[in-house]
TrEMBL record:
Signal peptide: 1-27
Keyword Signal among record annotations: yes
Keywords from the UniProt entry: Signal
Entry superkingdom: Bacteria
Protein name listed in UniProt: YfiR family protein
Amino acid sequence: MRISFLISLYRLTLALILFLTAGATVAGTQAETDKSVRSIVSGIVSYTRWPALSGQPKLCIYATSRYAQALSREDGHSELPYTPAIVRNDQEALAAMCDAIYFGTESPAQQLDLISQYQGRALLLISEQNPECVIGSAFCLIIEDDRVRFSANLDALSRSGVRVSPDVLMLARNSKHE
């Protein structure tokens, strides 16, 4: 009976060690993905110009985004090139007077609906759940495993009222960009 107990204790200890090791690896990968998403979004916003904006643009981040916390908090290493605001729905986004919007799980159709309500204002749109990037947002993040890339919808960008550096557009064309 004692040997059986020791074997069970050994197995439990081994399982706990494996669980903790795997959890740290997943957390490390998630932290790297958070950094990549933040870096790409910050880069896109940094190289975007609004026609009538003085100061930092306000980036409204939908609460449905997996990366809302990474995009909205200061990390102590670099200052954000935008003022973040977490929004929960279209009404909050409209009331916040956003200069840019980061969509989470909102569909391209939902994105178009919000865009139509913003008519007449320059607005940069970025999404994390629009892999085809054909309708809706001007920039779409492509997040696969621990790689983060982005693509651009030039039609949506031309209607957005903002100007984005051609260098950013070249990076979007390069499918190897991370």
